Structures are given as structure tokens and as C-alpha cells.
Amino acid sequence: YEPSGPRPIEKLSKDVINQIAAAEIIHRPSNAIKELIENSLDAGSTSIKLTIKDGGLKLIQIADNGHGISREDLPLLCTRYATSKLKAFEDLQSLRTYGFRGEALASVSYCSHVEVITKTKNDGCGWKAHYADGELVSPKPGVPPDPRPAAANDGTIISAEDLFYNMPLRKRAFKSASDEYNRILDVVQKYAVHNPHAAWVCKKAGSSLPDISTPAGSTSKANISLLYTASLAADLLEVPITVLQPQYLGASIRGWVSNANTNWARRGGWLFFINNRLVDSTKIKKAIDSLYTSYLPKGAAPWVYLSLDIDPAKVDVNVHPTKSDVHFLNEDEMVVAIVGAVQTALSNANTSRTFTVQT
Ligand code: ADP
Ligand code: MG
């Protein structure tokens, strides 16, 4: 054909499609961590332990004590669009799990070497399996393909090695393993504050001293004290569970926010969960920041943890694979109502401080 003429249209192969999707869903190690943590929580885990090498680029390992995966499900585990959480599109309206697309493990297997060891309560022994590009593979040539029996505790251990080994450009973009590790700690910390019922550990491979360690059955406030600073926790104001008005929003909010004495100068002071999912909501963050400008000195920043519970029928989680941005009905009213709840906490605190000074 002519160089200036049209080129023939061809269908992309399944592997190319899946590799493109993987690159979109897993931008960096911390995206994979978030997906893996959500899977562990979906599995009902009360203990989640992460081991990280080279900021997650060499190794991400997550060990949980959740319900495990049945042997029969292992062949489909890393297949794209294979999930145990969603059947019909309508189910999205009543979704209570983090996952639903069945894309996370597939994506991880398209950009790293995945090993899974899992055991359910009813299984006598555990099972081990290796995956590449969505499929079960043999661990080495000449060995029959997985899964194979393995010693294991109840729960699941997923290891992803050599992230982006097949995407050299992406891999080269990561200059600093310690910066990636800090992003991972940021995500784990936030989930630990929001899920204090579970014990959390995050450490670098080979290190005996974990960077994050919280006990099971803790509280959000105790975990904030452990993971952020004790002085921040001491100064926090509670936003008690508040049903947002008007009633038809079908939403409630709760959380902990810093007071007028705190300046959270570091990164990572914005923890916002919608139906237990960590999301960035720029709109709500801006509104809260601007509320604080009347309480804080110029240039100072708040620390804010808010958990919004909302009727799943009113949120659209089906927006982007990374699911960090979700949309909901009556968004503007919701922003006003959320700011109102935080303002109440802040102004109650101001009143009580004046009172203390006077006595
Ligand atoms: P999704 O979470 O959207 O279903 P994933 O690719 O993250 O998709 O996971 C695929 C399936 O693998 C899940 O639906 C679940 O059945 C199973 N799974 C993944 N991780 C775990 C885990 N840690 N414990 C138990 N089951 C898991
Ligand atoms: Mg998932």
C-alpha cells in the first residue's frame, strides 16, 4: 500500500490487549498493592502481611489468613474478567466487595511472575501455582504444570516478582525504590487505619524490623497514633457517625480530623474512603481544605480521615479500572453535607476550648 494511504485494520491479539490493560491498571507497585490488599480484605482476612523488595519492583508478597481459593478455581484465577464477586451487571448496584472486574490478578500476571500458595479451611493441604500472562504455567521446564500440593496455613500468599520485567520503558521510569516503598507504606497505612480489626505488617524483604505493625482488634485512632504520630492522634477530633442531610442522599459519614493546632506538613494527610474503598476525590478534598482555611494559619494543612457510606445504588464504581475516582449522584449536595459534618466537629472543638480557657 501507499505510504500515505490507509493501513490495513487488524485485530490485536488477546495477549497484546491484556498487556495494554495491565499497564493501565498497574501503573506502579503501589497500585498492585492496593488491589492485592482489597482481595485479602474481600476474603475476610484478619491478618495481612506484606513483604517488599526494591520498592515492589523486585518482589511484592502478601500473606493473608482469609478464606483461601479452592483448587478448582486456580486455573481461572489470573484469567481476565474471571471473578467470584459479580455475575450480572445489576449486581453492581448492591456490590459490597472491593473487587468485581476480575482484572487485578490478570493484570499482575501480565506484568510480573506470579506465585500463589493457598489453602481453604476444608482442604487437607494447600496448593501452589505459578502464572504468566493469565495462565497457569510450570515453574520450570520439564516439570508438569501447576497446581501442586504444598504445605500451607489457611489463607493465601501471593507473590509478584520482577514487576514490569516485560515493559522495559515502564520499568526504567522508576528512579527510586525508596520513593516507591513510601508510596506502598502510604497505601498500607491508610488501609490499616480504616481496617483496624485486622493485624497489618509491612516490611522490606530481609529486614527483621517491620515498618508497619499493628495488632488485630485495634481501633482507627490507636492505629493513627502508631502509624502517623501520637501527637496527631492526641489532637484529633472525632466526626461521629452522621447521617447526611437531606435524607434522600442515603449516606452517612464518620472519621477523625485534625484540629486548629495541627499543621500536617507532610504528604499523605488525606484518607478518604467511599464504601470502604480508598479513593481520591479532588472535589471533596478541595472543599475540606477550604473549610480549614478559616481554622488554620495560612499555609498550614489539615490531616483528614473520612469514611463515607453510601447506598451502592447511588455510586458508580464502574468508572476506571484503578477505581480511584468514583462518581455519585447528587455530588454537589454530598460535598456540602460532608463539609457540614466536619465543620460541626471543628466548631464544637472551638467552643470547648474557649470553655476550658475560661475555667
Ligand atoms: P476481583 O477482585 O475483581 O474479583 P481479582 O483479579 O482481584 O478480581 O481476583 C480474582 C478472584 O480471585 C477473586 O474474585 C477471588 O475469588 C480470588 N482471589 C483473589 N485474591 C484472593 C485472596 N487473597 N483470597 C481469596 N481469594 C482471592
Ligand atoms: Mg480484586
Automatic annotation (TrEMBL):
Taxonomy, superkingdom: Eukaryota
Signal peptide: none
Record-annotated DNA mismatch repair protein S5 domain positions: 224-347
Record localization: Nucleus
Family of the protein in this entry: Belongs to the DNA mismatch repair MutL/HexB family.
Protein name listed in UniProt: Putative DNA binding protein
Lineage: Eukaryota, Fungi, Dikarya, Basidiomycota, Agaricomycotina
